[in-house]
Design a protein that fits this description.
The complex is a heterodimer of chains A (about 280) and B (about 300). Chain A has about 280 residues and is an alpha/beta fold. Chain A has 9 helices and 5 strands; from the N terminus they run ααβααβαβααβαβα. Helices cover about 45% and strands about 10% of the residues of chain A. In chain A, strands 1-2-3-5-4 form a 5-stranded parallel sheet, sandwiched between helices. In chain B, α9 packs across α13. Classes of the chains: A alpha/beta (about 280), B alpha/beta (about 300). The structure holds thiamine diphosphate (TPP) and magnesium ion (MG).
Amino acid sequence: MDKQKALELKKTATRIRKHIIEQVFSAKSGHPGGSLSCTDILTVLYFDEMRVNPKDPRWADRDRFVLSKGHCAPALYATIALKGFLPEEDLKTFRKIDSYLEGHPSMSYVPGVDMSTGSLGQGISTAVGMALAGKIDNKDYRVYSILGDGELQEGQVWEAAMAAAHYKLDNLTAFVDYNGLQIDGNITDVMNPEPIADKFKAFGWNVIVVEDGHDHAEIKAAIEKAKTVKGQPTMCVCHCIKGKGVSFMENDYSWHGTAPNQEQRDKAIAELDEYLAGLEA
Amino acid sequence: MAKVATREAYGKALAQYGADERIIVLDADLSKSTKTDTFRQVYPERHFNMGIAEGNLMCVAAGLASTGKVVFASTFAIFASERACEQIRNSICYPKLNVKVAATHAGLTVGEDGASHQCVEDLGVMRSLPNMVVLSPCDEIETNRAIKAAIEHDGPVYIRLGRLAVEAVHDPDNFEFEIGKGIEVREGNDVTLVATGLMVQESLAAAKILEENGINARVIDMHTIKPVDKDILVKAAKETGFVVTVEEHNIVGGLGSAVCEALSENYPCRVLRIGVEDKFGKSGTPAALLEKYGLNAEAIAKKTMEAMKKK
Ligand SMILES: Cc1ncc(C[n+]2csc(CCOP(=O)(O)OP(=O)(O)O)c2C)c(N)n1
Ligand SMILES: [Mg+2]
């Protein structure tokens, strides 16, 4: 990845993180931890990979994206707003009674959202359906999806995994946001889903371990590699930090579904602004 | 008196009755929200987190119950009653096992999480399962007694609980609860409001507005949706001539349907169903949602008066 691109992506990711904090703050509810965690994957997908057209959100040949961990809607909304699917100023209406920006993504209301999600485990199955349609119709679009590591506890994820491998859906690339945390604590304490990479391998997937799920170049390389694989879907198991980018939210599961107060919001925005200023200097 | 959410009352009741060693509590990564955490603090050895895997949770509950345990299976109402519906049907209801599905975050007042998490179909779905008893308490004391009754009842029970803190309706020192027996919480002879869950509070407030308009409304707290109390309904139909049902649920399948079934077979009478009008919810504050969906006291009073004019 060239330097200019790398710098641009970092700036974009930081802007997305700021929007996440502002959305959750203005809504007084929502999920900052997991949103900050998957921001860099979304950044690479929408700003360095996916074939989409904000002027034609329903374009039949577009690449598709399904946020299987739908509670991270703030990250998706911020990403597609920066991409041009919706006005940035609408983000502050997140979760409000007259807003179209529901707490969990709705494809009926939001241009650029390809699937309604929020119930964990279902999104990845819908991504399998989209990829299967691509094969049926001989289209060259690709399908992407992000799952939570806690989400892997849903049996349905493994039903989807089986189906994707069975139908050789090499047009499907999924990501596990491997941040080690869910609502009630560490994933290994609540209900251990390990070994994650080996499980997907056993289910017939090509598996790529992304050692740093916040390194744009490493994420991009995994996506490129996946495109070369024939006859198998790819799972990128991305080591991520829940709350990434806001020091006091990092690796703390109490920020899973808690909104910052004014002081916390100011501190978070100041940190992100400082980082952004450093990038722009 | 301080407002208390029925989920809060549920957690406390579990801890209160938890000395009964048959009781096992299962949760699905939501123990702080469902408040089973309150039980875990006292009896950690009988609380099991099953992870984000609700279908498995229900069948594990069934297996535990088959050995004589009394199992409380908790998660949000949407995931309990709908995601794990068939597991509840075939592994819990069909063999009539002692599993108590205690489902929190029911209805629109889940609030900002929005449509995907607002369960307005659970009463209808659970009511249609043979062997299932369906409870929907409105306040802290009623929840406490519903949990006690569920423990004593031999067989599956679904208990609908809310996220939002609500006022007390009943006097804790003078309260009797029996499964299948509705409670008249306000006398009146012009119309009957039959409500469940936190719509009991809204209906009592609506009755005050109606009174200011010269209408004397009876209010019934229908805490048991199945088996529904036919006697109290027939009596209300005979004495007031018009019945309005009020629920934080789709008007299809829930309390309104149960009341219509009971009355049409036993004492046909005109019924107005107030509830979510066969729509999905959306994000917003609980108060804004009740207003938008026409479920606050003002809307209930207005709809009742309009219907009475047409009589
Ligand atoms: C089927 C289902 N069960 C429960 C929930 C409630 N819930 C929302 S987020 C969450 C934890 C998710 O953890 P993880 O998948 O690790 O997400 P992340 O850490 O990336 O936020 C749970 C249990 C849900 N949305 N869907
Ligand atoms: Mg996680």
